[in-house]
Design goal:
Chain lengths: 227, 91, 447, 179
Amino acid sequence: MPKWAMAIDLDKCTGCGDCMAACKLENNVAIVDAEQAADDRVMLWMDMMTIYEGEYPNIKLKRIPKPCFHCDNPPCIKVCPVHATYKNEEGLVAQIYNRCIGCRYCMAACPYTAKVFNWYEPEWADEFKTCMNPDVSLRMKGVVEKCSFCAHRLQKVKENARADDREISDGEYSPACADSCPAEAIFFGDLENKESKVFKLSNSPRAFRELEDLGTIPKVFYLSEKE
Amino acid sequence: MKTINNELRDKIIFAAQLVSISLIWLLVIGIIFWISNLIYLSVDLKDSPGISIGISLVAIPVFITLASILTYVFVGFHREKKKHLNTDSGN
Amino acid sequence: MNEETKNTVDIDEALYRPIYETGKSFYFAVGFLLFIIGFTLVVYIRQVYYGLGVTGMNQPVTWGFYIVNFVFFVGISHAGTLISAILRLSKAEWRRPITRMAEVITAIVLAIGGLHPIIDLGRPDRVLNIFTAGRLQSPLLWDVTSITAYFTASTVYLYLPMIPDIAKLRDRGGKMVWFYEFLSWGWHGTEHQKKVLSRAINILMVMVIPIAISVHTVISYIFSMTLQPGWHSTIFGPYFVVGAIFSGIAALMIVMISFRKYFHLENYLKLVHFRHLGTLLLIMSLLWFYFTFSEYLTGVFGAEPHEMDVIFYKFTGTYAIFFWGMVVCNFLIPVVILAFKKFKTIPGILIASISVVIGMWLERLNIVIPSLANPRMGLDMGMYTPSFTEWTLFIGGLAVFVLGFLVFSKFFPIISIWEIEEGRKESVKEVEKRVTSYLPDPANSVE
Amino acid sequence: MNVIDLRKTIKKNSKRILIALSAVIVLAMVWEIFGAPNAIIQPINYNHKLHIEKAKLTCVDCHLFVETMAAATIPNIEVCSDCHSGEPLSKSPEEVKLLKYIESGKRIPWKKIYSVPAHVYFSHRRHVTIGEIKCIQCHGNVQELTEPASHPLWLATMKNCIKCHKENKVTYDCLACHH
């Protein structure tokens, strides 16, 4: 069984936010209005953490892309009362919108605050409706959603590979954020495949994971010389 | 006429009491069904069935005990009531 | 038949009066409460229609008033059954006029509290998923089971000791005899029936205590099972139980004082009852302080950075006013009032009780919000301002509580009549016998 | 007295009344659950049998993407007009209807019989090409149909899906169909 993982090279990342935009378009993530956004209800599957260090005028700015970490030991799936979020055999932490009852317990339990909630029925402008991704189902009000590592792409890739009767090659399945990154800072692949780029990067001395001491074993690796 | 009415009334009230006591058993049976369904699900999805079984071992006896206490009281009262009525009519 | 029974119960006529005499103020109060509840219902339906966006909750602060009130109401519900079971079990004779009210609080408030998680759901229409596809591994399902068990147990525990009183009402005739006959289960006060009843009550009160404790422990598990700073703590189980009993006693005393005033029950609820309960409240207040102290000391001493974020948020940050308000309400005010006999009068105790109820609500607020508002990752601090909807539903919950009590008092005696009678007839002798059995045997001590 | 008589008759026949009442209720429930759903009537009374036997067509010839894509597609005028254009090939009044559609360039408003909800990803390719499932298995013996099916032979409910997946030991991971 493959084990999908992501590596984000922070030394390459320019913090442009292209991954966020690509993610929103790929996954039909609702766009909330300005008033909602001011109330901390922005819906982003791929978030961008902005950390300021130091005092003016010597401010250092860190921009860190933050998707769902698809932990190997996810705290969110343990608390779900209805099997709406669970970890599948390939290590993807799935969110099933039509099962979710909206108790938001998984959001409270996630130490990375990776999940978002549909506070209102999502609405799109007419211009947007024509460019929806048909492979990703639309969410309804009152359910939790989060980054899926573009699991719909995996299904397509699997289908293609099995139709041709071959294995999935490294880099064939990659989420929208990795595909779109102009700095080529996001890598995606199979941790079980010792030849894959991600496996090599995850063993790099520059690699680290967020809040490793919690024992959640995230499958998103950050690469950085500093820190 | 009045006595017939009274008898009928007593019977209706007794039936209603029986219904109410069977309702609590219905609740208990419903809960047992529910919990066993959840255990089946957790086994099926390989989702730590041990925990489910552990919880059910605590929860189910509690409900059964509660319902049995109520039934015990109900049966105890009515056995006595019959005697009570018999002695009344005997007098 | 009627005249006979009337003569025997004449002494406690005051306890029947609320059932048979209904003043204008009662209808006015019920109408007012129904209006509030109706309005609350409209507001709730609006929330279901538009989604949870109408509340003040947002991304890091995903739980707000609903969960706070859930914990708070379920905490209050511990007043009842637990206190009454402990008092019955320890044969405290002064319990007799108190137990019924305590048990009613449990049943009503638990029903209100139990509804709160459903109000909190984003998709209440899918609540049945819990039955068709639930996970018993989730602490939320532990809650569902334990609250159901506690609700069943406490309703049974309220009902069984009420049977003799219901039979009394049936024998008096008058309104709704069929209703009382249905509920009295053919009670005629025979020896056998008394034996059956007392045996059932004895089993129940032993059973109810662990169930009650489990309920609030499990509610604390909702928080402590996560990894969040400020929540992930082993002390939470007992801490919540102590807090629950603490707020429960306070709520019980508020209810007792209002009924005493409203129905003129000064003869039954005497100062001594309040003093005893007040002492209990004082003990719980000290115990609460001890738990709070341990909880925060371990956090501060360990000084784990994320934990410290949450603690500073409470000590000096945005929630400082609520945190220190909680300490004042839960510790300073009740201790000052209850430790001195001079202040331990009915108005004093009322002030202490109200302050404790407010303080315990603040405590729930202090537990739920700050941990969520300070996410671990380097994100911005969250803010939470409850909206009009949340306030309305909170007030609506309180209105249901008051209404439940008023309606109950119209159908059943609010003070257990047969237990008072029993106390008059038997317990004086029994207590004398019991106390003598504690004392050293005079025959032996001479030798 | 009349009232008592009535009561007596009711008491005498109470069992029969009860049985009759419950029978009515049970019947109503059975009708509700197993009763025939509303028949679907298509705009053109298409004859599968004729096309397969006389015109020697196979499923893929008209349902173009059965083997290669997620949706099998229902053939419309652009597919039909490959054969039907100008002169009618038969004396069937149904063909006249079709030709009218083709002439005016209007699309035939076929009614969908088999459908999955929007939150389900169903791929014909995955089932037909990879899973090697015969069309008959879900759509029934269509080549024998002389007129369009009036109701689905097999309901695409999750229960039915999971049942088949379990029987054939295929994954029933939620993510395989819901994303």
